[in-house]
Amino acid sequence: MMNRIVLLSSIFLAGCASNTGIIPIGKDTYMVSRQAATGFSGSGSLKAEAFQEANAYCTSQGKALQVVNTQEAQPPFVFGNYPKAEVQFMCLTDGDAELARPKLKKAPNVSIEVK
User: Which of 2, 29, 58, 79 ranks highest by number of CB atoms within 10 Å?
Assistant: First the structure.
């Protein structure tokens, strides 16, 4: 009986992992995200997998990867807030002027409203 509970729990948790695949979000701009099935894994490998998938996608189109933005879920990793990594990127042709300029910028975590 205990073996069945462990097996069913493992299947349930494996089903919670989420990988979006490549999603277009604008002209030549895409997003890919990875989410762990539990809070016990780190987000570093998730981010690396997302970068690999983004690079493979651009390479398959004969284009170069240009990262626009990255985001990661913040701890504590409990109650459905599991490690997650998101990469927004562009696929550009070699020689494109956009490849010469880095786009990666940290998003502000504070906003100020002036009334």
Answer: 58
Is 96 in contact with 61 (CB distance < 8 Å)? no
3-state DSSP percent of the chain in helix, strand and coil, to 5: 30, 25, 40
Query: CA dihedral in degrees (86, 89, 91, 93; nearest 10)?
Result: -150
Whole-structure pTM value? 0.67
> Per-residue pLDDT tens for 47-99?
888 999 999 999 999 999 999 888 877 776 666 667 888 899 999 998 888 88
Residue owning tokens 């493979």: 56
The Cα 24–Cα 29 span in angstroms is: 6
Query: Which amino acid appears at position 70 of this protein?
Result: T
